[in-house]
Structures are given as structure tokens and as C-alpha cells.
Specification:
globular, mainly alpha
Length: 210
């Protein structure tokens, strides 16, 4: 059942992204995701900016390793993790967890909601085409919502699998924890992919107005 849910969830997500991008396409030129420019203010220390960018990329690499090994086994073969895939999954998990915690600490201030966020018409899958100044904020409310959603979904994803390592729960408890890990990890991956997409789209929109 989880195999079918995973496949359908990713199909719906990527189809939605494709439709959304085709409707909001601005340019075919390649550009860097907006997270690389979120710390470009003159007052931002260079070292701190490099730490944030490096942490993002390490977290991104570990995320894709976790997604490929975890959901690859579930979606393609309908089996649990075993062998070399399990080793990669287990090795990448600590890096991803540390990166998530660091990014939440380092970027929490940037992703706080402000009064202007609630006045904007552009949210997760909409775009404000009637803006008075035709300018886009560095971080949209959709990105902020997804940022905090990622932070909260990380808790059950991490805690459920960690608790499975201790002989506290019985067989039913272990099964429930594994199921919780699967479901929360699926939602977390969907949120991360959407956040990456919105970051790239926001950068394209910002560049088109410069």
C-alpha cells in the first residue's frame, strides 16, 4: 500500500510542478536557486554565508541519497531497506539531521512571517501579477510555510526511527513507529522538493525584474 501511495504522491507532485512551471515560465536561462542569494546582504558575514550555503548543499545531497535509497526500495521493489542501500541510508541520515537542525537555527530569523506576507496574493501555487511595484520579495510566504513545515515534519521522521533502536516498545509499537517514519518521511520529501522548486522559481522571477 505504501508503495502505491509513494508513487502516486510523487507523480502528483511532479505533474503539479510541471503544470505550474509551464504557466509561470519566464526564461529558459539557467540560474542558481534563491537560497544562494538569501545571505547576500552587505552586513552578512562572508564566513556565515558560506556555512549556510555549504550546510544547504550537504543537506541536499544527503536528502537525495535518503530519498533514492528509502523510497527507491519502497516504490520500485516494494521491499524494506537491505544491503548496500541500507548502509547508504543509515550513513546519510545523520548528515541530513544535523543539516536540518543547523539550517533551522541559522535561517529561522529569515523565514519568520511578517505583516507583508499576509498581504501578498502569491502563495504556494499562485502568483501575484498585479503587484504595485512589480517586485518580488527575497523569500515568499510559500517558501516560509514550507520551511517551517519541513522543520516540524523532521521531528517525527527522526524520532520515530531513533525510538525503534531502543527496546521500549513491543511489536505493535515498533510497527507503528516504522509506519510513522515512512509517512512523515514521504511528506517531508514532498515538502523539500516543493521548497527547492519555489526557490528556483523565485530566483527566476527576481532576475526577470532586475
Amino acid at each position: 500500500m505504501f508503495q502505491i501511495i509513494s508513487i502516486l504522491a510523487y507523480l502528483i507532485l511532479f505533474i503539479g510542478i510541471a503544470i505550474h512551471y509551464s504557466l509561470h515560465r519566464r526564461s529558459s536561462a539557467e540560474c542558481k536557486p534563491s537560497f544562494l542569494n538569501q545571505d547576500s546582504e552587505p552586513t552578512s558575514p562572508v564566513l556565515l554565508s558560506k556555512i549556510k550555503t555549504g550546510t544547504y548543499f550537504v543537506g541536499l545531497i544527503s536528502f537525495f541519497l535518503l530519498a533514492l535509497t528509502g523510497f527507491g526500495a519502497a516504490a520500485l521493489w516494494g521491499q524494506s531497506l537491505t544491503g548496500f542501500a541500507l548502509i547508504i541510508h543509515t550513513a546519510a541520515a545523520p548528515f541530513f539531521a544535523v543539516c536540518i537542525v543547523k539550517l533551522v537555527i541559522l535561517w529561522a530569523n529569515k523565514f519568520c512571517f511578517t505583516a507583508s506576507d499576509w498581504r501578498q496574493k502569491q502563495y504556494l501555487f499562485t502568483r501575484n501579477t498585479n503587484s504595485t511595484n512589480n517586485q518580488h520579495p527575497p523569500i515568499g510566504p510559500g517558501q516560509k510555510i514550507l520551511f517551517w513545515l519541513i522543520a516540524f515534519l523532521s521531528l517525527p521522521t527522526f524520532l520515530s526511527i531513533v525510538l525503534c533502536m531502543f527496546p521500549i516498545f513491543g511489536t505493535e509499537g515498533q510497527t507503528a513507529l516504522v509506519q510513522c517514519h515512512h509517512n512523515s518521511a514521504l511528506l517531508l520529501s514532498l515538502a523539500i522538493i516543493t521548497h527547492i522548486y519555489l526557490s528556483i522559481l523565485k530566483k527566476r522571477q527576481t532576475d526577470s525584474n532586475e
